[in-house]
């Protein structure tokens, strides 16, 4: 065989090898979104210009030029016209059905009002019929300062005694009922006397032992039976309303903070989610929690988890625990390390430390996360101790358990979040120096404890996973308001612990990849990365170039779930672009630059 022939054979073989190893041209995308400012929440590629989608998933994230290879004859190409695209927002602590219900009730909004103003609101709500439900008067969103007023002097007299009346606190931990409502609910001096002292303490009584109508925690929950739906009849419309509302603010996934307690709520909430999921009306991803008060209840929760598995956009992922209550006076049910000034109380733990550790350990053994309501610094410490106990039993565990609210955190506990892989779910719309802080909290905390409030930056600086949440309907479900508030922490009486202000990149990550981790969805959503679901939102402004005040007004032009538009703002179709800094293209700025 000649040398020439051998050379030809070698050339052919090399060509075959090259053809086999050369990357194949990508299969065309279903849709390409280009010419945008794409915030990815991916630290390895914080910004891009374009995203390609196929089969509801992200297949490419790059600049416009690179997207040419993904465009075929049937590819839909969308020009974003320089608009800001980002991952769908995720709420790490929200009560959607309660929020949908509250949108149908007479809601005073949680703001501080005088007693005459409150009475006028009640009268108007009765006259319009909005407060009336099956012959009862129901007012929600009542500011806790109202409990210091003598409500009985007004609402236990005609004409109000003609109807059972319930006022639900905006904090969801307090309530007041007039005498007719107490009678309907079976709450009397005799029924209270028959209760164990531990339960009886949640009701306010007069010198004769008669209930005054005010109650906290479990007592308030008993009064909440007067709310529509507390008898297990959850209306589908509440779910539909909640989904539309959250989609409109760019929320595409959430951690449902309490889908019911098996013994009290049964499966009513789960069945409603099942109905929404099967009908295709659940246009966001719901990771649900079921409440437990003891380890004995866990087997039933595991059973329900399995029963409601396999539903589109819905799954039961964990257990909800209440470690304590709230800091606000007069309740002061949050468990604290330092006694409240003036009252000398320290709140109370709702679950004993050893039992909480058993619950977390057992839940992790059954592949479920635990999400713990922890307000006071003692509750936070005990919650972290319970996670640490689970880690000792399972050192290789990868479940990110989470603590919600975190009003007070003792400095020694700050580094423990990263050490334990615990997620800090903050509701930073509350980080403001308003009437509640000024009147119902500040007078009762020492200066040292005062500095512990909502220590988001301290935790972030210590490497903790921060997740954004709303606790809607306790407060607004609009993430943009919370993001802006976290950046300023300003209120009518000044700034609440200025050193705990958060940067914009940290807050964007808190509502994307951070909250995805809290909801156990981080491998599926939370960042714009190849292989993840195409849960995306287009904003009416480039928030990276704006002030917090402008960020709070952000509107979502459209919301996409799995590559499908599930919400579109018709009023935002031709938004007027807000002023931007022309000296720098902020879409190409690093996250540290944006932080400044």
Question: Could you explain how this protein is built, in words?
Answer:
The chain is an alpha/beta fold and 596 residues long. It has three domains: 1-85 and 528-537 and 548-563, Roll (Urease, subunit C, domain 1); 106-226, Roll (Diaminopimelate Epimerase, Chain A, domain 1), CATH 3.10.310.70; 236-518, TIM Barrel (Alpha-Beta Barrel). Helix content is 32%, strand content 20%. The chain has 21 helices and 27 strands. The strands form five sheets. An eight-stranded parallel beta sheet has the order 8-16-17-18-19-20-21-22. Strand 18, helix 12 and strand 19 form a beta-alpha-beta unit. Helix 12 crosses helix 13 (377-393). The N and C termini lie far apart (72 Å). The model is unreliable at 14-23 and 574-596 (pLDDT under 50).
């Amino acid at each position: 065989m000649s040398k020439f022939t051998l050379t030809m054979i070698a050339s052919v073989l090399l060509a075959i090898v090259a053809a086999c190893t050369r990357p194949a041209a990508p299969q065309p995308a279903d849709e390409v979104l280009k010419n945008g400012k794409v915030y990815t929440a991916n630290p390895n590629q914080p910004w891009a210009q374009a995203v390609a989608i196929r089969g509801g998933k992200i297949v490419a994230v790059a600049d416009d030029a690179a997207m040419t290879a993904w465009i075929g004859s049937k590819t839909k190409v969308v020009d974003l016209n320089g608009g800001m695209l980002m991952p769908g927002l995720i709420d790490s602590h929200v009560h959607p059905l309660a929020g949908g219900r509250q949108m149908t009730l007479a809601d005073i909004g949680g703001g501080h009002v005088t007693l005459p103003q409150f009475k006028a609101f009640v009268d108007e709500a009765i006259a319009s019929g909005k407060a009336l439900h099956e012959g009862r008067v129901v007012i929600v969103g009542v500011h806790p300062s109202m409990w210091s007023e003598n409500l009985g002097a007004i609402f236990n007299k005609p004409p109000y005694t003609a109807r059972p009346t319930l006022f639900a606190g905006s904090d969801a931990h307090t309530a007041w009922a007039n005498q007719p409502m107490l009678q309907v609910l079976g709450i009397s001096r005799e029924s209270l006397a028959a209760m164990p002292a531990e339960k009886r303490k949640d009701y306010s009584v007069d010198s004769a032992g008669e209930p005054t109508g005010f109650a906290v925690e479990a007592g308030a929950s008993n009064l909440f039976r007067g709310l529509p739906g507390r008898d297990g009849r959850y209306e589908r419309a509440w779910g539909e309303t909640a989904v539309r509302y959250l989609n409109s603010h760019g929320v595409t996934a959430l951690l449902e903070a309490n889908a019911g307690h098996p013994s009290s709520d049964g499966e009513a909430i789960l069945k409603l989610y099942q109905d929404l999921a099967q009908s295709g009306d659940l246009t966001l991803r719901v990771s649900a929690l079921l409440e437990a008060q003891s380890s004995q209840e866990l087997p039933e929760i595991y059973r329900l988890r399995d029963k409601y598995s396999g539903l589109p956009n819905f799954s039961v992922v964990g257990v909800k625990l209440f470690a304590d209550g709230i800091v606000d006076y007069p309740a002061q049910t949050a468990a604290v390390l330092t006694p409240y000034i003036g009252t000398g109380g320290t709140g109370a733990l709702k679950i004993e430390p050893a039992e909480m550790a058993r619950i977390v350990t057992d839940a992790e053994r059954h592949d479920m996360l635990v999400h713990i309501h922890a307000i006071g610094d003692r509750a936070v410490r005990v919650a972290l101790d319970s996670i640490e106990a689970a880690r000792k039993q399972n050192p290789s565990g990868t479940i990110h358990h989470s603590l919600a609210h975190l009003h007070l955190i003792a400095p020694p506990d700050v580094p423990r979040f990263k050490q334990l892989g615990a997620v800090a779910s903050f509701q930073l719309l509350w980080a403001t120096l308003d009437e509640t802080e000024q009147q119902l909290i500040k007078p009762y905390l020492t200066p040292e404890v005062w500095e512990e409030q909502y220590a988001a930056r301290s935790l972030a600086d210590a490497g903790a996973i921060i997740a954004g949440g709303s606790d809607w309907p306790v407060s607004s479900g609009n993430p943009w308001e919370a993001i802006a508030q976290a950046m300023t922490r300003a209120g009518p009486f000044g700034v609440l612990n200025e050193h705990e202000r958060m940067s914009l990149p940290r807050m964007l990550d808190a509502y994307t990849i951070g909250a995805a981790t809290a909801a156990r969805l981080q491998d599926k959503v939370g960042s714009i990365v190849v292989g993840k679901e195409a849960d995306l939102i287009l904003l009416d402004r480039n928030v990276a170039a704006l002030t917090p005040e402008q960020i709070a007004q952000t509107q979502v032009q459209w919301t996409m779930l799995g590559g499908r538009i599930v919400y579109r703002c018709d009023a935002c179709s031709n938004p007027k672009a807000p002023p931007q800094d022309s000296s720098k293209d902020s879409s190409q700025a690093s996250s540290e630059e944006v932080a400044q």
